[in-house]
């Protein structure tokens, strides 16, 4: 049906499935394809990536699109490969068009079904693989319409209230090179430092897919959890419970539990660890039983903070035992995990589809992996690539998501050793994490100078008052912080900080 929105005199003709209803800040449009005829011509479009690692940000409608280009394997892992439009501007679930005087026209889905929003110089459109979610349409000040959208999403999908506190994670220092003894030493060096959580990352399991203690943890994972708890920290653990590498026992012995391709073979659903991997078909009762056992075990070991990674793989297109929409399947799988671990375990989502994770995860990563270098010269033009700059750009463009769950911009650094980041770059990372209100690091105390240790303590002990003064500018405890030059790419990095 044809309808004309009237936003205080700004008339927006639209093609809608049914009559919209007014709500605070805008209108709710019933599920179905939507097209809004905007009067702004070529302007900026806010593109939102599908999962934690997917590129998000503002791009001109007459300029390059934002997304992962020329890398199908990476696209499959780090965005919604099924819906990517490299030559047209589009993103997942929500999008916005810049109007006049800082006002924007926003269109956002209020649920799952792989909703997609795109734009060109004339139209802001929305469609979905499965039209089950209503839309929110609003025109007004940028921060206001994003806040109103987030609040409506939370009204429908929930808002968890768990708080991570300060986190030490093993990834951005040791990577997979962790073992029982190294962890014990690192924990003992950290004793007395202001961290709430000590989180073991990837490297403890024998292989991704088999969630038992690997050979580097001969005493078992419960002993390490005890070591961590005895030092005064909440034990945290990384798992990728919805995927399995081809060499895992799960994939070798029970390929029938995996999401299938059209030929009835396990579907390839992403790439990492030098391999492709597969997804668990969480619609099967045996898979639910398997997940129950994994999570009862992990909680039984004593872990109370779980970083669940590569979760998007539970929401990819593929053949499952029940033909439910993939994002609904994903949400049910996480709800199942939540029901097993209980309410008091903190769940941090990583590589999660963003909107389907609202109300089930306590926190979510909102950008690609950080790195101890500014930019990745090997992958120019891939905004999902590892590096400090990509991480800041994606995270700051998702600051509005704080209203949905805690938003994790990834670790910050204090160390000057084993890093190519200069003082200013480290500060930009720390400012970003202060703005997003999620503070974590991977720096072992032994890698820090006396002064850097002081800096770490001061940073982890403070809670800042954050004011937003512009799209990318903030006041942190009264100090002006302008990330605009970093986000818009007008900062020239010095050649020494590029990884070659
Ligand atoms: C452990 C790591 C860390 C890290 C996670 C995740 O798009 N990708 O191909 C891609 C691969 C790996 C990756 C992120 C993205 O890293 O983000 O914090 O836990 O796994 O293996």
Automatic annotation (TrEMBL):
<dbReference type="InterPro" id="IPR002252">
    <property type="entry name" value="Glyco_hydro_36"/>
</dbReference>
<keyword id="KW-0326">Glycosidase</keyword>
<protein>
    <submittedName>
        <fullName>Alpha-galactosidase</fullName>
    </submittedName>
</protein>
<dbReference type="InterPro" id="IPR050985">
    <property type="entry name" value="Alpha-glycosidase_related"/>
</dbReference>
<dbReference type="InterPro" id="IPR017853">
    <property type="entry name" value="GH"/>
</dbReference>
<dbReference type="Pfam" id="PF02065">
    <property type="entry name" value="Melibiase"/>
</dbReference>
<keyword id="KW-0378">Hydrolase</keyword>
<dbReference type="InterPro" id="IPR013785">
    <property type="entry name" value="Aldolase_TIM"/>
</dbReference>
